[in-house]
Amino acid sequence: MTPTVGVLALQGAFAAHVRILDWLGVATVEVRTAAQLERVDALILPGGESTTMSMLLERGELIEPLRSKLSGGLPVLGTCAGLILLSSKILDGRSDQHALGVIDLEVRRNGYGTQLDSFETDIDVAGFDDPFHAVFIRAPVVERAGEQVEILAKVDDNPVLCRQGQVMVAAFHPELSGDDRIHRRFVDSAGY
Known about the structure:
Layout: E1 4-8, H1 14-23, E2 27-31, H2 34-38, E3 42-45, H3 50-59, H4 63-71, E4 76-79, H5 81-86, E5 87-90, E6 103-108, E7 119-123, E8 132-136, E9 141-145, E10 150-155, E11 158-164, E12 167-170, H6 181-189
C-alpha cells in the first residue's frame, strides 16, 4: 500500500500544500474528518488563522483523533498556524484555543506584527546548499525552544524552522515559495 500524506483542509492554505505534494509524486488526501485522518501516514497542518483552525478541529470532532495520531508518532509538518497548533504553549492564545503539545515551543501569534508587517526574506536552512526564500504572513514568533528541539533556521535570532522527532514546524509559508525543498525534507524524514 502506498503511503499517504494528509493535509488538514479545514481552513487556510491547504491547496498549495496539496499541489507541492502532487508535484513530488506523493499520494495525498485532504483531511476534514476523523475517518480521513485515520487513512494518513503523515500530516501537514497548514497556515491560516490558528484560533479558527482550533475551533474547526473541535467542531469537526478532530481534536482527540488528532492527539491520538500525533501521540502515536504520526510525522507532521506545521506551517505558520500549524506551528502554533503543534506547540506546547501559545502565549497569547484564547482560553479555548488548543495547543497540541507535540513540539516543545512557546509561541506568540502574529509575533512579527499585522498583515502589513508581513515580509519575505532568504534564510539559511541547515542541510540546504542555497538559501530558502521564506514568506512570512502574520507569522508567529518562537519565544522559547526546548532542549530537544533542533533549530534548522533563524531570522534575527528567532527560530523559524524547527524539528523535534517526527514533528517539523515553520513560522513561514514554504508552500508559497516556489521551492519544494522543505516539503521534500519532510516527506523524506517521514520515510517515503
